Amino acid sequence: NAGVMQNPRHLVRRRGQEARLRCSPMKGHSHVYWYRQLPEEGLKFMVYLQKENIIDESGMPKERFSAEFPKEGPSILRIQQVVRGDSAAYFCASSPLGGSWDEQFFGPGTRLTVL
Amino acid sequence: TQLLEQSPQFLSIQEGENLTVYCNSSSVFSSLQWYRQEPGEGPVLLVTVVTGGEVKKLKRLTFQFGDARKDSSLHITAAQPGDTGLYLCAGGRGGGFKTIFGAGTRLFVKA
């Protein structure tokens, strides 16, 4: 049973470009969470999605950031017009049942560098 | 403002020593998890505690949830170099979906 997959593992973008980060949850999991981690810091919640629905996006910046989890295919975190401050590791997690009490399984992360 | 404060932020010890790291909050959490994260990887869940006063053991690791469900501790006995990593606590609030993470304790165990 494959774990949570994220790609790319490393992504370099110039200021103003778009970044697309993909996450395939574990088989059988229909709940996906995205987190951002800055160096020497913990993970900051961004968004929680179920298939075709955004449940909680309270941690996501209002502008330039969007997330989706379509019926088919991976979840996508999209950052438009990237700025240097977007450089971070972005982690995706999935769970079978949802809710903050449910065990979340993390992917290896995508490290975004904005030049 | 960090809802979950972890201490110490950094700990460097010799192999064989014991250590305790702490996770404190002024808020009540319905559950609390401890994760270990290695460089370049995602966090891996070690344990979830849900009942005030609960103690869980995982080999040389002992986890305790405070009676009031506002704090937790992780005690490692006879630390080994393989224990090196970033230890994160994370809490869930009842009825919500957001998991809140502490900033972590970075542990380095020297051989």
Description:
The complex is a heterodimer of chains A (115) and B (111). Chain A is an all-beta fold and 115 residues long. In chain A, 0% of the residues lie in helices and 49% in strands. Chain A has strands at residues 5-7, 10-13, 19-24, 31-37, 43-50, 53-56, 65-68, 75-79, 88-95, 105-106, 110-114. In chain A, the strands form two sheets. In chain A, strands 2, 4, 5, 6, 9, 10 and 11 form a seven-stranded mixed β-sheet that branches. Chain A has a four-stranded antiparallel β-sheet with strand order 1-3-8-7, with no helix packed on it. Chain A is globular, with a radius of gyration of 13 Å. The relative contact order of chain A is 0.33. In chain B, 0% of the residues lie in helices and 53% in strands. Chain B has strands at 5-7, 10-14, 19-24, 31-37, 44-49, 55-58, 61-65, 71-76, 85-92, 99-101, 105-110. In chain B, strands 2, 4, 5, 9, 10 and 11 form a six-stranded mixed β-sheet that branches. Chain B has a five-stranded antiparallel β-sheet with strand order 1-3-8-7-6, with no helix packed on it. The mean pLDDT of chain B is 91. Chains A and B meet through strand 5 and strand 10 of A and strand 4, strand 5, strand 9 and strand 10 of B.
Order of helices and strands of chain A: EEEEEEEEEEE
What is the overall number of helices of chain B?
0
Percent of residues in helices of chain A = under 10%
In terms of DSSP E residues, the strand content of chain A is: over 45%
Number of helices of chain A: 0
